Predict the 3D structure of the following.
Amino acid sequence: MLKEEAIIETAQVLERLAYEIADLSRCKEELEKHMAALLEHPDEGQKSYIEGRYKIVLKTGFNWTLNKEKYEMIGRSLSTANDPVQKQVKYELNKKIIRDAYASGNERDIHILDEILTKKPAKLSVTIGAGI
């Protein structure tokens, strides 16, 4: 029973901290916006400000996203100089295939995988939700 109580107590603390961190993050974001407004910082760019004993560095900008469907339909008619889309080769690892390959016992493939892959522990993630 002692272990179960410790687990429940730890889960409660983690849950409370998650809410507090979310609230603090929202508060921080609002204060950062307020600071940018007070300093009349432009919508895009980086600048350092000295106020009293503080050096305040503000960086602003925009994140752009691409509507791939519309790009496929009309974006290709852009001139090459004004086409912002860069095509890249992207390598992604399929973890299921990796696990299956190691489980199969094929020594040749395992040796090659050991040469081309590095295995490191992932960051621990704990999610606390309602149990009932």
